[in-house]
Write a structure and sequence with these properties.
Elements lengths: L6 E2 L3 H5 L5 E5 L2 E6 L4 H7 L1 E4 L5 E5 L3 H7 L10 E5 L3 E6 L3 E5 L6 H7 L9 E3 L4 E6 L3 H6 L17 E5 L2 E7 L7 E6 L4 H14 L3 E2 L3 H4 L7
Parallel strand pairs: 1-3, 4-14
Antiparallel strand pairs: 2-3, 4-10, 5-8, 5-9, 6-7, 7-8, 10-13, 11-12, 12-13
Length: 227
């Protein structure tokens, strides 16, 4: 009998040390759904959540945009831009011919791209994406970001749909603005190897600002509507 293996977040051990109130398997990964403490206060000040469970995919090549569109996936018209996918997901255009996709708590665009036999399609090449995903949300989010990065994220409004590739406390990151419940928010992705260091740094600053970590479902339970 074959046993299904549950995936583990790159920051699992750090979150487990917080003694979560509830664990759930979300999209095949064991996640802390709820953490102890006042999540509302943390969210309105500055909350940080692990969203590494969401399915991701990458694809690049001169025919990548055309192939994605043939799969029913609308691609951003410009480089360094993103747009929403059904189910709360996102697709980011990294340069002219490379794309990063992430599903929401529902939706299957990224998983379909990841599982497609792209190697057999001329001009389309798969890119393995196993990034850690982190969300930061709250009215003091800019105070956190200015302590970690030299990009002025305050100028990045939610309507601009800009993709930022930069360094954050020495870690290469991909960042988009994605507000939540009328509070400013950002999604951050990084190489899983560096995720524990980045998480510890962000969580520490969030704590200093009166916030801190919240459970995964504190954000995913009310994802933005499909766009």
């Amino acid at each position: 009998m074959t046993m299904k293996v549950t995936r583990t977040s790159p920051v699992h051990d750090l979150i487990a040390a917080l003694n979560p109130q509830q664990w759930d398997v979300v999209r095949g990964m064991n996640m802390a759904s709820r953490l102890a403490g006042d999540q509302t206060a943390a969210r309105e000040s500055i909350a940080i959540a692990d969203l590494s469970c969401l399915d991701k995919a990458g694809v690049k090549g001169p025919e990548a945009a055309r192939w994605l569109e043939s799969q029913g996936i609308a691609v951003p018209a410009q480089a360094n831009a993103w747009t929403g996918l059904a189910g709360g997901g996102v697709i980011a255009r990294l340069g002219r011919t490379e794309f990063f996709l992430e599903d929401g708590v529902t939706g299957d665009s990224a998983s379909r791209v990841r599982d497609a036999p792209a190697l057999e399609i001329t001009g389309v090449y798969p890119v393995i994406r196993q990034d850690a995903g982190i969300a930061v949300v709250g009215r003091r989010v800019n105070e956190l970001l200015v302590q970690t990065c030299n990009v002025n994220f305050q100028e990045l409004d939610s309507a601009s749909r800009t993709v930022v590739m930069t360094m954050m406390v020495g870690v290469a990151v991909l960042v988009i603005r994605r507000d939540h419940r009328n509070l400013p928010g950002f999604r951050i992705w990084c190489d899983a190897t560096y995720a524990p260091y980045l998480w510890e740094t962000l969580a520490g600053i969030a704590s200093d600002l009166g916030g801190g970590p919240i459970g995964t479902m504190g954000l995913l339970s009310q994802e933005p509507k499909p766009e």
